[in-house]
Design goal:
This protein has about 400 residues and is α/β, with parallel strands linked by helices. Helix content is about 40%, strand content about 15%. The structure holds pyridoxal-5'-phosphate. Pyridoxal-5'-phosphate binds near residues 180, 205 and 330.
Length: about 400
């Protein structure tokens, strides 16, 4: 059998045993959670259980906020950004702060709002550091929303979102704060209250749950003050915030997966740190540059730049050898232009074009890194020869 060394876990993860087991159990629980009879209610119970598990993993205390299940992280972010823009009450406030290296799910929705007349201020993230002084300089009463990601999906940089939101809220408490925590949830410890975030996006398939499920945390204050409105209208599921019959199988598996990871989140972090430093050491010995952020970083994501060889070429070479990495985020693979995130990080367009993202899950081992090393070594020998 062909080997499969999967090192693209920031694109998506394989299902965990806990997830698989729950999916299998759920094949018997077919009710519609909105039905009042007992078959519907047993489905409702599984959704409620998953909600409780995820809220608890987020460290949300009773009545502090709600969790709204969606179809993915992208939908949760669209609800956060478009939902708060369309519920907007303060007419004079049109300024939105964001970083210059957000995932397209944030970036594209903000571009859409820009066309509607909002002013978007993009804060630099050179070397993976969110520029807090630039945030200070952009603060005035025009501020409406701030959206910053917790962990960058291409470089692993951890942005000081808590510090940024605290500065914003201390001066303008009515400003809305959204954090895309898709790459940070269950990887680094945080709570929405600790971040001073009104809205937090998470996604199941990055955490060994199936694709098709994400969630948005919404603070009780946002709901009470009607600062967010739904865009999927219909049967009023999810407290009216996201109509449509729930993906009960996906939601239950998301909950089971989060419960499973919660038991050993600390151990997973140790494993990531060990793999990150082992891989950095081995790969840099091949003359490959490690794009390590200057500040804090989440060690499940390692970004590297190859010596003058396009990442796409190496990626296909590795793939044929049974080693799977990415040439940027999965979404940027739909685009032929070099990653804007890596350019914001400080790479030249040519370097960005030669960069690979290696991303770990707790199932990866040092032997996987050894396989990557050997495969990269032969790719470099072969491809450099072809170039000459
Ligand atoms: N935000 C970040 C930082 C991501 O890395 C991703 C996916 O790669 C998303 C949002 C989108 O999540 P989903 O694939 O669940 O829509």
């Amino acid at each position: 059998m062909k080997r499969e060394i999967y090192l693209d876990n920031s694109a998506t993860t394989p299902l965990s045993e806990a997830s698989r087991k729950k999916i299998y159990e759920m094949t018997e629980i077919y009710g519609n959670p909105s039905s009042l009879h007992s078959i519907g209610q047993s489905a409702e119970k599984t959704v409620a259980e998953a909600r409780k598990i995820i809220l608890s993993a987020l460290g949300v205390r009773a009545r502090e906020g709600e969790l709204i299940f969606t179809s993915c992280g992208t939908e949760a972010t669209a609800l956060a950004i478009l939902g708060s823009a369309h519920a907007k009450q303060r007419r004079e406030a049109l300024r939105i702060l964001t970083s210059d290296s957000e995932h397209p799910s944030v970036k594209k929705n903000l571009e859409a709002l820009e066309k509607e007349g909002f002013e978007i201020v993009r804060i630099p993230t050179k070397s993976g550091i969110l520029d807090l002084d630039a945030i200070e300089a952009s603060l005035d009463k025009k501020i409406f929303l701030a959206s910053f990601m917790l962990v960058n999906n291409e470089t692993g940089a951890v942005y000081k979102v808590g510090e940024a939101f605290s500065r914003i809220k201390s001066k303008y408490p009515e400003a809305i704060t959204h954090c895309d925590a898709v790459q940070g949830f269950m990887k680094i410890p945080f709570t929405p209250a600790g971040l001073k975030a009104d809205l937090v996006t998470v996604s199941g398939h990055k955490l060994h749950a199936p694709k098709g499920v994400g969630a948005l945390y919404i603070s009780a204050d946002m709901i009470k003050k009607k600062k967010i409105s739904p865009f999927l209208l219909g049967g009023g599921q999810e407290g009216g915030m996201r109509s449509g019959t729930e993906n009960t199988i996906g939601i239950a598996a998301f909950g089971a997966s989060v419960a499973d990871i919660s038991e050993r989140a600390h151990k997973c972090r140790e494993r990531f740190a060990e793999l990150y430093s082992y891989a950095s050491e081995r790969i840099s010995s091949l003359g490959i540059k490690i794009n390590r952020p200057s500040g804090e970083y989440a060690s499940h994501i390692l970004n590297v730049t190859l010596p003058n060889i396009k990442s796409e070429t190496v990626l296909h070479f590795l793939s044929a050898d049974g080693v799977f990495v990415s040439s940027g985020s999965a979404c940027s693979s739909h685009s032929s232009t070099p990653s804007g995130t890596l350019i914001s990080f400080g790479l030249t367009p040519a370097q960005a074009d030669c960069s690979l993202r290696i991303s770990f899950s707790e199932y990866n081992t040092k032997e996987d890194v050894d396989a990557l090393y050997e495969s990269l070594k032969s790719a470099l020998a072969r491809l450099v020869r072809i170039k000459r």
